[in-house]
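ugh ok fine here u go
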Amino acid sequence: MTMYFLEFLVCLVLGILHSQGSRGMVSAMNPEANMTVIQMIRYWGYPSEEHFVETEDGYILGLHRIPHGKKNHSEQAHKPVVYLQHGLMADSSNWVTNTDENSLGFLLADAGFDVWMGNSRGNTWSRKHKTFSISQDEFWAFSFDEMAKYDLPASIDYILNKTGQEQLYYVGHSQGTTIGFIGFSQIPDLAKKIKVFFALAPVVSLDFSSSPLTKLEIFPEVFVEDIFGHKEFFPENPITKWLSTHFCTHAILKELCGNFFFLLCGFDERNLNMSRVDVYGAHNPAGTSVQDMLHWRQVVKLNKFQAFDWGSSAKNYLHYNQSYPPMYNVKDMPVPTALWNGGRDWLADASDVHILLTQITNLVYHKEIPDYNHIDFIWGLNAPWRLYDEIITLMKKYQ
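structure:
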């Protein structure tokens, strides 16, 4: 069904371009649209490394590293380490998709940090398993539960072992904050390894969210599975990449591409670099599991921050040793937390965030940026001076 929808989009695009004729001026395509994350990092003159880590349940995750910046080539030992975790249906490219002067990954490297960027199971860079193939339903039987329980500990332990450090800074965006709140509240040994948790556009509830992504709740779970199947949900694929590099480079259609992100995340048109929409679209969405989306549907429907409900008492007992999914309690998280949210964020609505703030027991900083939407935190043109400078200052304060 997803493929039929994409094919329809291609036909629609071709029709629009044909009707526009010579008026559909084409902008130069950004070369990063067809690059891997490693190639994107090197394109801007930074060193890059790709690492692979195996989780306790057999998933093989890709990690991308910027060991130092362009301005500080020293390979000094015990450099402070930062781990960046992307959001829903995203990947590590989120942190380096803008220019070297606008991307958090590059700015942190230039500020003297050893930067590591994670990739959740099932996305473009984490599609391998010790036993299962991506063609099997078993590979896709996961949600943000498993990302918190298995992906985070495996990735963070690997990074600390590799760098010889005892702690690191954790920066999460959107679902990257969700798995942080779960992992750091449920696994005490993991929490001890985090110096400060930087939560950008955090999501643990969607009671007030107005994003179309939350409207899956109105459809029965069986209907959602009939439409999308039981495996992956919107992976990176040749059709979306073609749309990004051919459709979004047309001057008359570039704004339409940008509006796709705004429709899901909230509007802040002046703060998105429209000349790079082809790069954003070529790497996003990067895919997740249908089960991950169904878990978010449960969060919306039940208004509860809890583990995935497997649909029966027997199945829940098999997974949790109890007949119902366990609740997640943010108040159990001891990690020092700095949090930023946006006033125009349709996913991490300010009202949901204000409730979350009352549950964080070790809040060291909070700022609401009134005009920010959900993607301004990773791609906003003014993010370096409105957000990233504060993050770097706080990191240096808590060294």
